[in-house]
User: What shape does this take?
Amino acid sequence: NLLPVPNAMIQLLLVPLLLIFSSAVANKIIITLIILLFLMGYRYMTSAITGRKSYAFAILLLVFCFPLKMGLYSLVGGLGVMLFTMGYYINHKGDFTKAQLFYLTLLITLTWFWHLFACMSLLVLLLSYESVLFISNLRNRKSAMQYIKSKLPVLLSFLPVVLLMISFSEKAIDSTATKFASVNMLLEWISDMTVMHFFHTEREGTIRMIFYGLLLFSLIAGFIKRKNLPAHAFAFLTTAIIITLFLFFLMPLNFFSGGLINLRLSYLALILACLFIDIVLTGQWFTFIRNGLLVLLLIVASVNVFKNMLPYSARLNELLTVSKHIETNSVVLPLNYTTENFEYNFSLYLSCDKNCVVLDNAEAATPNGLITWNENLYKPKLIGNYLESTTPLIDPENYTKNTGIKIDYIMQWQWTAEINDSSTKAVNQLLKEDYEPVYASVMNRARLWKRKVHL
Assistant: This one.
């Protein structure tokens, strides 16, 4: 993909890692780097706002949340870079030397290459911060025009991103259909803190209630002691949260080749809420209450993630045993019968350590990645509804007739005998006629079929 894609960093990091490590190890290294980047960016911004070193515990609650569950690694890493960039901006009070302006430009451009949403989030925070400073200057009877002129060099630092956006927008703007969520759904996402859910367990409900209580407590405390907070901190964070929530209700679900925009905005709002908690609840008693509740929440969250991750880890290891039975340079069609969205992309691991093609890569079907599908050969609709359905109906022969590419293997994931609808019966009959079984995993979750060679 020759476009200046905004989600390129993860793939650029994976290239050297996969030359050295297995896909499983490389994945763990990437996730570790992303989490560290996210936490360090948050801590840096907190320190920039307060003017002192901050341990900033609240953000730990937002590590194992919806974005990581959905595999949005670039988003989490990009938000970490965005927070660092915003912290750099606050540290310099928007007043830069030429060298510092150059570094700011590099940081903004780096934010773009991590994630487009992170770059847009940076604009929201900058707008909030500068709005507060602008109003403060007016109250001090300073020249509005002079203030605006002083910010023109900062606008120039966005020039590379503006040019990248123009180049990227031609192909990205129409790549996804625009859809809007209902107001009731959006309100439910806010009240349930859907973006904080990882496994939808009772423990997560407990975390949500305590977090809401902590946020309410910090809002009351912040209003009471707002004059004693770091300069403009209360106004800046409040303004940023209000703008983010406004966009949450205004924006469509899909926009500019990206999906789940509203959930991403709610994630940004929660990051700002954590900043609010960490900055407002200071002082001996406030710190004691804040840290005590956060430690409790982190223990509950850690137990929740560990217990619920174990089954998925076992299932993924089971899936990985399939790879050794697939020949190099083969084309593999995955059929996913599970209703658990956490397992949606499991089949892609088959091609991580072996040179083969798995006909299911959502990232490559958008203009967002460095690698894109060959449009003449990637035609999933010719095969059937396997990308949308958990009881898919497929026609491999139709795909072969139209593209000249034969599907060498079909891998069924989480199929059981209890799944006996008409589509599944038709697929099983096709497998018996045109394919032969070559492998079934220990727990029978993965079944691999190889195309028969007709003489």
About this structure: Strands lie at 331-336, 357-358, 409-413, 435-440, 446-451.
